[in-house]
Amino acid sequence: TQYVYRFGGGVSDGGSGDKTLLGGKGANLAEMASIGLPVPPGFTIATTMCTRYYEDGQTFPDSLRDEVATGIAHIEGITGKRFGDEADPLLVSVRSGARVSMPGMMDTVLNLGLNDATVEGLAKVSDDPRFAWDSYRRFIQMYSDVVLELDHGRFEEALEIAKEDRGYYLDTDLTADDWRALVGQYKEIVVELWGKPFPQDVHDQLWGAIGAVFGSWQADRAKVYRRLNDIPGDWGTAVNVQAMVFGNMGDTSATGVAFTRDPSKGDNAYYGEFLINAQGEDVVAGIRTPQYLTRAAREAASAKPLSMEEAMPEAYAELAAVFDRLERHYRDMQDIEFTVQQGKLWMLQTRSGKRTAKAALKIAVDMAEEGLITREEAIARVDPQALDQLLHPTLDPNATRDVLTKGLPASPGAASGIAVFDSDTAERRSNAGDAVILIRTETSPEDIHGMHAARGILTARGGMTSHAAVVARGMGRPCVSGAGSISIDAKAGVMKVAGREIREGDIVTIDGATGEVMAGAVATVQPELAGDFGTLMEWADGVRRLKVRANAETPLDCRTARDFGAEGIGLCRTEHMFFEQSRITSVRQMILAEDEAGRRAALDKLLPEQRSDFVEIFEVMVGLPCTIRLLDPPLHEFLPHEEAEFAEVAEAAGIGVDQLKRRAGELHEFNPMLGHRGCRLGVTYPEIYEMQARAIFEAAVIVAEKSGEAPIPEVMIPLVATRRELELMKAVVDKAAQDVFADKGRTIEYLVGTMIELPRAALKAGEIAEAGEFFSFGTNDLTQTTLGVSRDDASRFLGAYVEQGIYARDPFVSLDVEGVGELVELAAERGRKTRPDIKLGICGEHGGDPASIAFCEKVGLDYVSASPYRVPIARLAAAQVAL
Ligand code: ADP
Ligand code: MG
Ligand code: MG
């Protein structure tokens, strides 16, 4: 088997289709080289080697030595330099690169091939000793950190002291002799910490670095990242060895990172940062504040340091041409790394750029309108889940803000929460239920768990492409980075800003769209649903087959749902209406009544209230179907708890408190989830369902008369297991309908159907379909009853279940397609057999989950129903599965 694949100098053993084998970075380096872009030559050791390395007890096969030697010879042939040559040494970078990008997770070593002898040669051929010694100190520091795993703080400390001693401010102030002296100190630190001198043999250096890259695949922070992002551990990483190009060769050299479009807002404008006389890591590490790429961006920020467009017009023009070339080639927004060595541009990386949901939308719509991609591709490009970011409120522009400072708008969205200064605390406080804003000087991969736990992230240092910014955008967390005027004392749990102190636990607000940092909480407003969002939704609606409804029971939720494009109500839970303050006493009186007459007396009081609920809902949903579920929960959920409550109910019912308490005791159930609930209430107390049905039909008539258009009630009987239950309940509903219609002299079209939420109902769906006109799969309960798992108690063990691969994902979030799904499929099939035009839908959490929606499409359901905020997600997901 071949493990080494070359690129550069007219050779490309691989291409962008080889990400599995070569990792994303390697595959795209090969691809860029093959389309003639300037890529320093190199080779990629395949991901299959990583897997084999671990299988073989972290050793390399002998054959790899020969292959690597061939790879080095390839680079030597093109560059005309030799690895380890004391006169004119070839230097290389050793870079990791997994199949998908794992920002900052894996380690890179630059300037490899320098030692005490080759550094002199480099100084001579470059005629620039300062550059040579700067590169050597960088190499020792990085190699010691990444490969030898020595404390990098010691090296930084030595550099800081050297700068202070000489009165310097920037790294670029150091001279050749300063760097040479520092290299001497660095080597002493290595001996002190490692017990051995810094490796001088360039081949030892190379194999050390290759081993370290493979080794970092199993580092804790890489494992955490994989777990959070569902990346399998057996994918492995590739290693890229590539000729160095130098951005630190003086003022005609530079390094930078860029996006072909704005990854935050999506505007079609080049976007990025660069640093003159620097090497790659300097930009991301936030050592110096980077400069803007374009003049327009610099002017917009009224920044002084010249943009690349102004400082290096020729290299910039070449770069802009490469951007356009890359976008046309990949047909997507690209995230790139480049270096300019003495005026010559080199491409070091390209990948499809991470972007915010807002940018994803805009870029997809723009590219379709530019003709770069099709509308179908545009639909497929936007992650439905990510829309979530756009649908939530942003800061009210009119609310007063106590602005403390302003940083960079690194990731949009607004968040308020308590200030927390380290990631462990962030995780702990978040688990305890607090909304947390994580505030750090800068973030590193060790902060991933804290960033995940936080509502928002604020950093004092780092640019728009810093670790914090990149990771926050990926996670959809609002982020303000580089808020330079704050100073943080994490140990003391306090930050100072604008002469004020914010302590751990104080509430702060960040606005990732403007970069503002505020004290206290700030009011929010609803998002804008027109523009690109509206356009993409329209395209999506044009291709999807599944209808999308909402689970909603208040007029406000119904309004939101309709604004978000819901095509009806899939689940209106009537019990929520019973809890309202004005009604609960009547509800309790009804429940605790000793007989039918007592119940009816209470129900008579509830009827007008319930009717007005439905009037409000029908008014919003006029012309659309509304599935209304009759009372479902066990009655004891409504029982009084406090003495005063008992007294109130007793008075309303005209009975004694003791009698009431005895009756309440009788209602106690051992396992209420499987107890006296659902249609069992209707079977035992038909007058409850009769009242609800009456309220529904009276409301429907009122609204039909008022608005001229009738609502379409679909009355749903919960927890049915047998045909007979549904027959009995349907008779109650039909009777109420006939009575109301006769009374009012007007008929309304309606359906009566059932929820399929018990395995028996799914199995006997053929019979049940004879008695009802629609099924709505209540997959929350169907999951509970099929798996025998209580959703409310599952958190204790479900984590372990998912971790050990028993269930791939939380079955209450994403439908257990194999098990519960089989019941759904079977019920749909059997139901259709006896009633070919039966209406089929799904309600419950799964209705808004893209993977579950794909399943619903496959089974051919008519609609999915999701919570109002998830309606757009469901619309897009339904379109994607129809493509
Ligand atoms: P990461 O995945 O963390 O971005 P990279 O392998 O891309 O790691 O490299 C880190 C930095 O070093 C980047 O800025 C990159 O552009 C720079 N770099 C990598 N290889 C070279 C090289 N051969 N010459 C110059 N700079 C390089
Ligand atoms: Mg890195
Ligand atoms: Mg990179």
UniProtKB/TrEMBL annotation:
<dbReference type="Pfam" id="PF01326">
    <property type="entry name" value="PPDK_N"/>
</dbReference>
<dbReference type="InterPro" id="IPR000121">
    <property type="entry name" value="PEP_util_C"/>
</dbReference>
<dbReference type="Pfam" id="PF02896">
    <property type="entry name" value="PEP-utilizers_C"/>
</dbReference>
<feature type="domain" description="Pyruvate phosphate dikinase AMP/ATP-binding">
    <location>
        <begin position="21"/>
        <end position="57"/>
    </location>
</feature>
<dbReference type="InterPro" id="IPR015813">
    <property type="entry name" value="Pyrv/PenolPyrv_kinase-like_dom"/>
</dbReference>
<feature type="binding site">
    <location>
        <position position="781"/>
    </location>
    <ligand>
        <name>Mg(2+)</name>
    </ligand>
</feature>
<protein>
    <recommendedName>
        <fullName>Pyruvate, phosphate dikinase</fullName>
        <ecNumber>2.7.9.1</ecNumber>
    </recommendedName>
</protein>
<feature type="domain" description="PEP-utilising enzyme mobile">
    <location>
        <begin position="435"/>
        <end position="515"/>
    </location>
</feature>
<dbReference type="InterPro" id="IPR040442">
    <property type="entry name" value="Pyrv_kinase-like_dom_sf"/>
</dbReference>
<feature type="binding site">
    <location>
        <position position="781"/>
    </location>
    <ligand>
        <name>substrate</name>
    </ligand>
</feature>
<feature type="domain" description="Pyruvate phosphate dikinase AMP/ATP-binding">
    <location>
        <begin position="316"/>
        <end position="370"/>
    </location>
</feature>
<dbReference type="InterPro" id="IPR023151">
    <property type="entry name" value="PEP_util_CS"/>
</dbReference>
<dbReference type="InterPro" id="IPR013815">
    <property type="entry name" value="ATP_grasp_subdomain_1"/>
</dbReference>
<keyword id="KW-0067">ATP-binding</keyword>
<dbReference type="InterPro" id="IPR002192">
    <property type="entry name" value="PPDK_AMP/ATP-bd"/>
</dbReference>
<feature type="active site" description="Tele-phosphohistidine intermediate">
    <location>
        <position position="467"/>
    </location>
</feature>
<dbReference type="InterPro" id="IPR018274">
    <property type="entry name" value="PEP_util_AS"/>
</dbReference>
<feature type="binding site">
    <location>
        <position position="778"/>
    </location>
    <ligand>
        <name>substrate</name>
    </ligand>
</feature>
<comment type="function">
    <text>Catalyzes the reversible phosphorylation of pyruvate and phosphate.</text>
</comment>
<feature type="domain" description="Pyruvate phosphate dikinase AMP/ATP-binding">
    <location>
        <begin position="64"/>
        <end position="300"/>
    </location>
</feature>
<dbReference type="GO" id="GO:0046872">
    <property type="term" value="F:metal ion binding"/>
</dbReference>
<keyword id="KW-0808">Transferase</keyword>
<keyword id="KW-0479">Metal-binding</keyword>
<feature type="domain" description="PEP-utilising enzyme C-terminal">
    <location>
        <begin position="530"/>
        <end position="881"/>
    </location>
</feature>
<keyword id="KW-0547">Nucleotide-binding</keyword>
<dbReference type="InterPro" id="IPR008279">
    <property type="entry name" value="PEP-util_enz_mobile_dom"/>
</dbReference>
<dbReference type="GO" id="GO:0005524">
    <property type="term" value="F:ATP binding"/>
</dbReference>
<feature type="binding site">
    <location>
        <position position="757"/>
    </location>
    <ligand>
        <name>substrate</name>
    </ligand>
</feature>
<keyword id="KW-0670">Pyruvate</keyword>
<dbReference type="InterPro" id="IPR036637">
    <property type="entry name" value="Phosphohistidine_dom_sf"/>
</dbReference>
<feature type="active site" description="Proton donor">
    <location>
        <position position="843"/>
    </location>
</feature>
<dbReference type="GO" id="GO:0016301">
    <property type="term" value="F:kinase activity"/>
</dbReference>
<feature type="binding site">
    <location>
        <position position="629"/>
    </location>
    <ligand>
        <name>substrate</name>
    </ligand>
</feature>
<feature type="binding site">
    <location>
        <position position="780"/>
    </location>
    <ligand>
        <name>substrate</name>
    </ligand>
</feature>
<comment type="similarity">
    <text>Belongs to the PEP-utilizing enzyme family.</text>
</comment>
<keyword id="KW-0460">Magnesium</keyword>
<dbReference type="InterPro" id="IPR010121">
    <property type="entry name" value="Pyruvate_phosphate_dikinase"/>
</dbReference>
<dbReference type="GO" id="GO:0050242">
    <property type="term" value="F:pyruvate, phosphate dikinase activity"/>
</dbReference>
<keyword id="KW-0418">Kinase</keyword>
<dbReference type="Pfam" id="PF00391">
    <property type="entry name" value="PEP-utilizers"/>
</dbReference>
<feature type="binding site">
    <location>
        <position position="573"/>
    </location>
    <ligand>
        <name>substrate</name>
    </ligand>
</feature>
<feature type="binding site">
    <location>
        <position position="779"/>
    </location>
    <ligand>
        <name>substrate</name>
    </ligand>
</feature>
